[in-house]
Amino acid sequence: MVAPESSRLWRRLMTLAEIGAIPGGGVDRQALTEGEASGWRLVIGWGREAGLHPATDAAGNLFLVLPGRDRAVAPVLLGSHLDTQPTGGRFDGAAGVLAALDAVTDLAASGRVPERDCVVVAWMNEEGSRFAPGMMGSEAFCGVRDLAAIRAVRDADGITVGDALDRFLAGFPDLPRRPLAAPVAAYLELHIEQGPVLEAAGCPVGIVTGIQGKKTVSVCLSGAEGHAGTLAMPERRDAVAAFARCAVALHAAIGGLDPAIKFTIGRVQVTPNAPSVIAREVRFSIDLRHPDNAVLDAAGARIAPLCAAEAAPCTVAVTPLVTAPSNAFDPVLRERIGRAAADLGFRAMPLLSAAGHDARHLAGLCPSAMIFVPCRAGISHAPAEWAEPADLAAGTAVLARLLHDLAFATALPLAGPPG
Amino acid sequence: MVAPESSRLWRRLMTLAEIGAIPGGGVDRQALTEGEASGWRLVIGWGREAGLHPATDAAGNLFLVLPGRDRAVAPVLLGSHLDTQPTGGRFDGAAGVLAALDAVTDLAASGRVPERDCVVVAWMNEEGSRFAPGMMGSEAFCGVRDLAAIRAVRDADGITVGDALDRFLAGFPDLPRRPLAAPVAAYLELHIEQGPVLEAAGCPVGIVTGIQGKKTVSVCLSGAEGHAGTLAMPERRDAVAAFARCAVALHAAIGGLDPAIKFTIGRVQVTPNAPSVIAREVRFSIDLRHPDNAVLDAAGARIAPLCAAEAAPCTVAVTPLVTAPSNAFDPVLRERIGRAAADLGFRAMPLLSAAGHDARHLAGLCPSAMIFVPCRAGISHAPAEWAEPADLAAGTAVLARLLHDLAFATALPLAGPPG
């Protein structure tokens, strides 16, 4: 038995983390960049070694296909994403893609041909940091969002997803294109928890019950530019001052609503952003999450009136970007995750995902499930992000067991427990 | 008599404003950029037409010299700056340089040789928007700040003043270098008021009594990065939330101190500035001004304790950048400005400058004075900045009269009025 920290999975995670490495052990490998292309080349190479066939689609998702006996039936998909936040960690996304590759590689090496195709997937732009909002690849694949609308989104430099995607895929001219919105038999995703629950409980395996609801909103405050040394205070329409009042009011009213709410202003863009110029505009992002859709909607509805009350003498425009209600994962697959963990001797517990994942969209297309592994102190989206090799090995073993169930089942979806 | 809007001065102002033109009639021509170099080439060309000799110095100031009879005596300097804010106007700085060029051009055309050199100057980086804080050229020239320290300052892309300056001056290899800190007989600067006083009073000429005191401060709030969807609100150290509390408290306590105070947070930089990442750091600028040095000092002293009280659980570091006490301009030159305006039939009134100017530093080196012209609605540092052609012509005529006094005086400084 290989020690977890000497395993193929762990070595590959650390190798992949060298692409886009930043100080403190973190990774900056944003969507459709040269860094992500390098990640693709590495992962495609590992897939080819295992006999898998790489492919892509019009949305820039990456697939590694182990062909099944009957190519005509819907495949099992399993994976996550390879892109990171600008100051992200080594595990968010990458762990799920490489765990899936590990499981499919072992299946291929067993010599037994599965009933159906087993496909490792890396979704395009899960993070949404370069092009907001994220989960573009899974949204396009699942028909949640039109690809033309996704292609029109621009990054901070004005580059569209369409241009970045065409350039990115031009670097992989030999990859066949799979259709979008093709039938899928089941979807599995392993991910670090990005919260403190599993670590605190001493559980290496989390059975994800669902994903908490999320709203993202963009707010634009418009004032008037002026000279910092000359314009009297009462005559100013200072967008930074208005932003500060709005942010304090929003944090107090929404951030303090109940213990389960998450309220974040993560991006603030000031124009012209010069020390001696009164700002004429501030655009800021709101990320709001709650497991209860009614609370989420009620909190979201307060954003515009709170801003309107505080913004004067500036004007305010509130633009909703994403509303993703909370969802529940497939109960049969959840039961199977628990059974697999028990068979393998790992403690497991159910928990809600506080973070969003591509599995949210797949769950609308096919029976889907997620396996969480603990991460240290709940830290994620930061260089200090860390998962223990043994926990990743446990989660991957459970994923492999579930893949085996699905790969060789003659009929899907799997039936639930009797009674 | 040429109508003011058909004059050489006005046509040149409009031509110069095409370099770095931005929508709405504004200008983006920041220090040591290709745009400023184009401005230099234009102004040097006009100076050469008038028989002036261009030169520079180690701090990247531009000089256009009309030689006097005695080259050994200290020259008269007159000018302003050619750089602008990123969303600046057509008059701030440019009006002063081109008015000075107009006055010296007329003097040269008269055929009479002045007693001493008369030198048009455009100071390097008055605005301080690309490299903060500003007034670098006049500070280096006057020995207020060491050139080595200035050269080490970096812009947002990490480029130092030193590197930008060396590259900029390499584009002007034929310009002789004048020494820094050479004696100056007197300094005159025309500028738009950047406030509403002259317009409201219907006065085309302002006799600037002095410049209000200014402090600039940089504040850094440090928290901890985290995932917007997972980290519970009480466990966060959100630098944006801390910024909002600090900004509200600072505006209330300092911005509301008295009617004469000016308090501005114009620049806010969030790290990593991604919608779904709790910010680990916010750096922001404070620009604080008041005509009374005691009030300025007392207000400045409140910044650090106010931030410390609001920043928790983030930590705060407050770095003072500039403290420029209020100053008074030379009383003899002020009296001469009033007399020149009266002789020419223009209404004139004394007023304090709310904005900082290079003349602040020159006033420590030699007798100095400033002439203000009105600008519409007090708007400056914005594309809507506007000055009437007739007001600019009036201010320039007064400047030319004063230049004449200084150019032909056999002894400087000028004597005050009798009694």
From TrEMBL, chains A, B:
Q: Which domain of life, per UniProt? A: Bacteria
Annotated Zn(2+) 1 binding lies at: H81, D92, H191
Which segments does the entry list as coiled coil?
A: none
Cofactor(s) for this UniProt protein? Zn(2+)
An example of a GO molecular function for this protein is: metal ion binding
Gene3D superfamilies, A to Z: 3.30.70.360, Zn peptidases (3.40.630.10)
What Pfam families does UniProt report for this protein, alphabetically? Peptidase_M20
Q: Does the keyword Zinc apply?
A: yes
Q: Which family does it belong to?
A: Belongs to the peptidase M20 family.
Name-wise, this protein is Allantoate amidohydrolase
From which source organism is this entry?
Methylobacterium aquaticum
Q: What is the lineage of its organism?
A: Bacteria, Pseudomonadati, Pseudomonadota, Alphaproteobacteria, Hyphomicrobiales
